[in-house]
């Protein structure tokens, strides 16, 4: 039996848009589902189209930028490292500002701005990459200056991609689902499938073109980026116009300083920003959805993801790129499978219990793979294969857990605070991702990969324990011992 958590008086009287999707009464998290609403197919199609275009362009450019920098600056990882570090830090530093912007502005205005500024940043970057590639004389300061400009554009692209992601995935889909957890689970799952499809095919597409011609890849990247603006821009506008609830203003605004920033001196501006950031982080830590959100963020502290770090290790262990590609494809298949398994499980036992199951499905294969990895360390190929198998199987639990925690956060976080909550969550994700890079900077030799792998499994285990604590707090128990006669 699920423990009931009474709402505060002011929450109990809020209208639908300002309250969580489900009341915190009996049955929450145990599969109680509203059957009163299904998403309009036209709205769903437009949402998927907009998200596909946004994600495809983002994934294609993200990977393309790596290829372009590797071609322009051969023999050194420094430009790529500076570019990636600046991009990641921007998301961490400016998260509170992004959250304030989302929460205090009209929904359509925010998403449209994210579309336009993302595309402008990518287009400007492609122009600079092209200038680099054709070898125009730039002088002593030209190349560093353009690299700095690229880093700034990367920050702009990253920040507005967060704006788009938080607005659409954390707010719009919640409003569109209108309280139906099954509908919300379906929307989340389909969006995640689009993410995974773009994650797999976007880099492959631009890599194939780059293999033929880097110049052609830059031109294609630029052209597709520009061509998608109109379709994405109007798809999101049509969704907004077709759903009256999206047009409703949020009743409460995130408090901001009454003194305009322009009239403050630099010291006061910094102090105001620090206070606002501290307020957002305090709100995040004190929220009832903190534990599942933080647990999901902690999963970003990993090198076990078929990213650059693990791929580099696998190559050093004797894997050829074909086998790595096959393993990565199989892992994506497991991730896509999770987008069907998780919604089905949520419908059967509720998002809270489903999250616990998915968390175990992630952590147990990783622990098994890590143990085998350490046991067979004298045999690098067998050791690496053990880790690969564990990582592949764990992807089912990873994506399933991600979907469950996303539903919990969407359901728990109030409409007027979704921006600040989700951007602080994104800040933690970026912080943990940067820490994962630090792990391989410290232990940079392939023979030392066992330590970053251990850190990764420890982080995943900690995330699982944090979520288990949340389940215990929410339900009052983890196992129905009475079913075993205990």
Automatic annotation (TrEMBL):
Ligase is among the record's keywords: no
Protein keywords: Ion transport, Membrane, Transmembrane, Transmembrane helix, Transport
Coiled coil: none
One GO cellular component term noted in the UniProt record for this chain: membrane
InterPro entries: Ferroportin-1, MFS_trans_sf
Stretches for region Disordered: 1-36
Biased composition (Basic and acidic residues): 7-17
Keyword Transmembrane in annotation: yes
First and last residue of the signal peptide: none
Pfam families recorded: FPN1
Bilayer-crossing regions: 65-85, 116-135, 141-160, 289-316, 322-342, 354-375, 381-398, 451-472
SUPFAM superfamilies from the UniProt entry: MFS general substrate transporter
Membrane topology of the entry: Multi-pass membrane protein
A GO term for molecular function: iron ion transmembrane transporter activity
Subcellular compartments: Membrane
Its biological purpose: May be involved in iron transport and iron homeostasis.
Entry's family note: Belongs to the ferroportin (FP) (TC 2.A.100) family. SLC40A subfamily.
Name by which UniProt lists this protein: Solute carrier family 40 member
Source organism: Colletotrichum phormii
Lineage of producing organism: Eukaryota, Fungi, Dikarya, Ascomycota, Pezizomycotina
């Amino acid at each position: 039996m699920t423990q009931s958590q009474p709402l505060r008086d002011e929450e109990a009287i809020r209208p639908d848009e300002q309250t969580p999707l489900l009341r915190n009464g009996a049955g929450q998290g145990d599969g109680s589902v509203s059957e009163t609403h299904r998403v309009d197919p036209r709205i769903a199609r437009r949402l998927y189209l907009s998200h596909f275009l946004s994600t495809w362009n983002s994934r294609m450019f993200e990977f393309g930028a790596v290829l372009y920098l590797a071609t322009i600056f051969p023999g050194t990882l420094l430009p790529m490292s500076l570019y990636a570090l600046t991009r990641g830090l921007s998301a961490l530093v400016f998260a509170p500002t992004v959250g304030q912007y989302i929460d205090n502005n009209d929904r359509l205005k925010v998403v449209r701005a994210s579309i336009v500024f993302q595309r402008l940043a990518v287009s400007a970057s492609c122009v600079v990459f092209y200038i680099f590639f054709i070898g125009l004389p730039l002088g002593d300061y030209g190349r560093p200056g353009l690299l700095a400009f690229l880093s700034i554009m990367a920050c702009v692209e990253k920040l507005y991609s967060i704006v788009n992601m938080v607005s659409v995935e954390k707010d719009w889909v919640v409003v569109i689902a209108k309280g139906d957890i099954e509908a919300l689970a379906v929307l989340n799952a389909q969006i995640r499938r689009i993410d995974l499809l773009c994650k797999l095919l976007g880099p492959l597409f631009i890599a194939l073109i780059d293999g033929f011609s880097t110049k052609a890849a830059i031109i294609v990247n630029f052209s597709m980026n520009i061509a998608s603006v109109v379709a994405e821009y109007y798809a999101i506008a049509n969704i907004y116009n077709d759903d009256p609830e999206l047009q409703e203003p949020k009743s409460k605004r995130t408090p901001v300083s009454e003194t305009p920033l322009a009239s403050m001196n630099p010291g006061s501006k910094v102090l105001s920003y620090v206070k606002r950031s501290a307020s957002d982080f305090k709100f995040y830590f004190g929220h009832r959805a903190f534990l599942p959100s933080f647990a999901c963020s902690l999963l970003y502290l990993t090198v076990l993801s078929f990213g650059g770090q693990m791929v580099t290790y696998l190559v050093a262990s004797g894997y050829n790129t074909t086998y790595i590609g096959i393993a990565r494809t199989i892992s994506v298949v497991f991730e896509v499978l999770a987008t069907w398994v998780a919604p089905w499980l949520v419908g059967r036992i509720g998002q809270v219990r489903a999250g616990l199951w998915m968390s175990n499905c992630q952590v147990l294969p990783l622990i098994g793979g890590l143990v085998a990895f350490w046991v067979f360390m004298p045999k690098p190929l067998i050791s690496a294969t053990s880790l690969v198998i564990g990582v592949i199987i764990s992807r089912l639990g990873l994506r399933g857990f991600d979907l469950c925690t996303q539903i919990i956060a969407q359901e728990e976080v109030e409409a007027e605070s979704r921006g600040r909550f989700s951007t602080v969550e994104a800040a933690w994700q970026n912080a943990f991702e940067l820490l994962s890079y630090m792990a391989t900077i410290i232990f940079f030799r392939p023979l030392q990969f066992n330590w970053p792998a251990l850190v990764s499994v420890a982080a995943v285990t900690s995330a699982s324990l944090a979520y288990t604590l949340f389940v215990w707090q929410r339900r009052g128990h983890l196992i129905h011992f009475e079913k075993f006669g205990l």
